[in-house]
């Protein structure tokens, strides 16, 4: 199990909501039929359904995750949703056999492997795909430091490790998904959705992020202790993400 803590998901939820590309969310909502059925993959605590419910007010949600603790919290937050435990690595075809108008995911496609993306794209079978907040490899901390590039490189190497789906696409997740969906006849759009964090509003998230980046860089062979110490007083931080919307065109 990948082990995403509720605390981490709660911490990132407001930054995710701010970062989500507004024009792409509006385009997704406009593409949906009335009262759409939506399957959210890797739902965690239900953040996607919770955040975009105002844009898609009459949606009937099915939330899928493999972590029972996160799903318990999702049931509490979204009592009207159908919530189901499944391992997407093995069961994506079964999960997507369910009737639905659209498939959503947030912060998932950087965790998955390229061959899994091909399986996903086939199993999507023409339904609308809205995959938000895939990490794209950009990290920009302020004030800048000489070791930023080495730490970011090590972090991005770590992002490509196995997260339960085989070797992860990491920063290439959104572009690999775009290619796979285009090969299935979809028209695909990508749009930026960066976190723009400031010390004034996002101290806890910036600190947790610096901890995670330094620890991942360490596991990838770069000692980021000095970088981590300096980042306790970073004033801003931008983390790049991409949102994707895909609609079948033929
Ligand atoms: C980065 S979190 C994002 C959670 C949620 N979409 C959000 O935006 O807050 C990735 C989610 O994918 C789930 N996940 C990872 N591997 C999975 C797998 N093999 N099967 C099902 N869910 C998985 C995790 O449990 C976690 O909830």
Task: Write out the CATH superfamily name of the domain at 6-139 and 166-196 and 240-248.
Answer: Vaccinia Virus protein VP39
Uncertain runs are none
State mean pLDDT (0 to 100 scale). Answer: 97
Strand content bin = 15-25%
Order of helices and strands: HHEHEHEHEHEHHEEHHE
User: How far do the termini sit from each other?
Assistant: 37 Å
The major β-sheet equals: 8 strands, mixed
Counted beta strands: 8
- Ligand inventory: S-adenosylmethionine
Number of helices: 10
Topology:
Layout: H1 6-19, H2 22-31, E1 37-41, H3 47-52, E2 60-65, H4 68-77, E3 82-85, H5 88-95, E4 102-106, H6 114-124, E5 128-142, H7 148-159, H8 173-183, E6 186-192, E7 195-198, H9 199-219, H10 225-231, E8 236-248
Parallel strand pairs: 1-2, 1-4, 2-3, 4-5
Antiparallel strand pairs: 5-8, 6-8, 7-8
Helix pairs in contact: 1-9, 6-8, 7-9, 9-10
The structure holds S-adenosylmethionine.
